[in-house]
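User: Could you go from structure to sequence for me? I need the amino acid at each position, not a summary. Structure tokens:
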């Protein structure tokens, strides 16, 4: 499984940006997620989706602002970010996890496949 993230850039506060993660390989029943890491901080969960279902999960700070979706035909996961804030500035990473017992979609160590980061900068 390989992941390729894209779509980062500079956006003003209140604006929108969409990140994409192109996935290659067999990912049926995998979980796909976005994490982010701001300078000097630990990498944190942003949102996730099960590839074989429609349920989505978000960290509290992005609920009602960010939307994660998947395009099965193109094996791509998108992260639509609205009403962006300066504190959303970070490197954003997409990640994939194979099916496993006691899986926690928010736990960074549960993901074995990572894409490269794409930088998002929100200006005030």
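Assistant: Here is the amino acid at each position, in order:
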């Amino acid at each position: 499984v390989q992941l390729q993230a894209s779509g980062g850039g500079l956006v003003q506060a209140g604006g929108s940006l969409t990140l994409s993660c192109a996935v290659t390989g067999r990912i049926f029943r995998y979980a796909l997620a976005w994490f982010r890491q701001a300078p000097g901080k630990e990498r944190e969960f942003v949102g996730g989706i099960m590839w074989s279902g429609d349920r989505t999960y978000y960290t509290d700070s992005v609920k009602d602002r960010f939307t994660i979706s998947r395009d099965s035909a193109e094996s791509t996961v998108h992260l639509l970010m609205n009403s962006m804030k300066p504190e959303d500035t970070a490197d954003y990473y997409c990640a994939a996890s194979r099916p496993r017992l006691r899986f926690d979609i928010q736990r960074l160590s549960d993901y074995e496949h990572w894409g490269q980061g794409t930088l998002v900068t929100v200006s005030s």
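One structural detail worth keeping in mind: Residues 63 and 86 are 16 Å apart (CA to CA).
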